[in-house]
Every structure is written in C-alpha cells, then in structure tokens.
Amino acid sequence: MELTDRVAVVTGAGGGIGRALVTALAGAGARVVATDVGVPDAPIAALARPLDVTDADATAALVAEVEREIGPVDVFLANAGVAAGTDPVDTPDDVWDTVLDVNVRAHIAAAKVLLPGWLERGEGYFVATASAAGLLTQIGSAPYAVSKHAAVAFAEWLSVTYGARGVRVSTLAPMGVATAMLDTGADEGGMSAAATGAVRAAGEVLSPEAVADAVVAGIAREEFLILPHPEVLTFFRRKADDYERWLAGMRRLQDSVTRSAE
C-alpha cells in the first residue's frame, strides 16, 4: 500500500514503537491519528486523542471521530500492548484478563468497527503488533506468550477470511526493542526479569525507530510477517522442522535464564 494521504490510526502511541510509528508513517505521507490511554505528545500527528483500547465503545467513537474530522481509516495499527504475569499458577485472573484485553480483544474490537467500511470500499489495512513470542514463545510470561500467539492467530484469520476482498493484514513480530516494556519490571507493566533476560540473550535489541521503519517498508510490500529481526524466521522454521528439538532447546534456554536470574 502506498501511504501518501492515507489515514492511519496508531494505538499505544505515547512512547516506544507507537511513537516511532507515528513519526515514520507521517514521514511516508500518511495522515496519522495518535492514540494512547493519555493524550500522546505527538505534534506531528493530524489528531492526538486518548483511547483505552479495552473499551470497544471508545474505539468505535474514535473511528467515527476520525471519519468526521479527517476521513475513513485506511490503516489501523493495533500497537498497544502490555507484558505482565509469570506462570499460570502465580498469575492472578485479573492480570490474565488485562493482558488478553489489551493484546488480543482490543484487536478484535477494532476489526469489528473497521471491517464493514473496509469491505464496502474494497480495501483496508490492519497491522497487529505481536512479537516474536507470538511465533515462538516467551520465557517467563505465560500471559504474554499466549496473548501474542492469539494476536498472530487473529491476524492470520483476518487475512485468510478477507484478503480476497481487499483487506490487507500484517503482523509485526520483533524480538528485543529498546522500550519501557523491556526496561521496567512486570509489576510496572513491563516484562519479568526472566523474560527480559531471554529477550536480551536472543539477539540485538533494536531501536523503536528501526522497528517503525520496518513496518513502513512491510506495509509498502504488503507482507504478512514483518520481522525487524530476520533471525526470527530462522527460529520459526526450526520450530516447524523439528518441534521436539525446538522445545528441548527452549527448555535449555529457560534453565539458563532461570539460573542467571538467581
């Protein structure tokens, strides 16, 4: 998709990848709407609005406002995300609910609002920020791993179901990115120590700007998998080629990270 004059909505635009996406999309000529729980500081955006992505009515209201003020949404980047919790035994139900609401159900709510218009016009673009954890797994956080797998699965379903009717879909699946999620602890909405250790051990930690540039390039090529860390594809292929061997290797990584965190 050519982004010039396209209307693009970015959730989770208050920092990290989201803020970098606003800048990169605007640089590519899009008219960008920046959203976050608090009004994001995004002077380059055409609109900056508060949005709780877990509130389906608020998402519908935002899309309606954008249509009135700027025009129909062409690209929706479901970027807001949280990392919290550890294993299923120690993670409270309310934490599971929060992670699933932000990382998965918010994508579903946005799609429900956007799909009727996209199908009527015969085009639209949905970009889901998942993670390499959505293709592989996440050491240390069951809610994060499960929710990101679900985000990838929902994006796949959208592409399979509506791709022939003009709806394009991409899934962003990076490894380590230098954001607050990586640097803060699980109690503050970031990754656990084990998860952070695993991410840093897996490969290079990229800047949000590098990831945003990869997204813009991926949209231009209309790629389903946007992989700022190309080695993720190698790991994904190894998983598919020999699942048992891959699981054994991940267990070794789990043991190594656990020992280093002690």
UniProtKB/TrEMBL annotation:
Keywords: Oxidoreductase. Pfam families: adh_short. CDD domains: SDR_c. Transmembrane segments: none annotated. Gene3D superfamilies: NAD(P)-binding Rossmann-like Domain. The keyword Cell wall biogenesis/degradation does not apply. InterPro entries: NAD(P)-bd_dom_sf (IPR036291), Sc_DH/Rdtase_CS (IPR020904), SDR_fam (IPR002347). Belongs to the short-chain dehydrogenases/reductases (SDR) family. This is SDR family oxidoreductase. It comes from Actinomycetospora chlora.
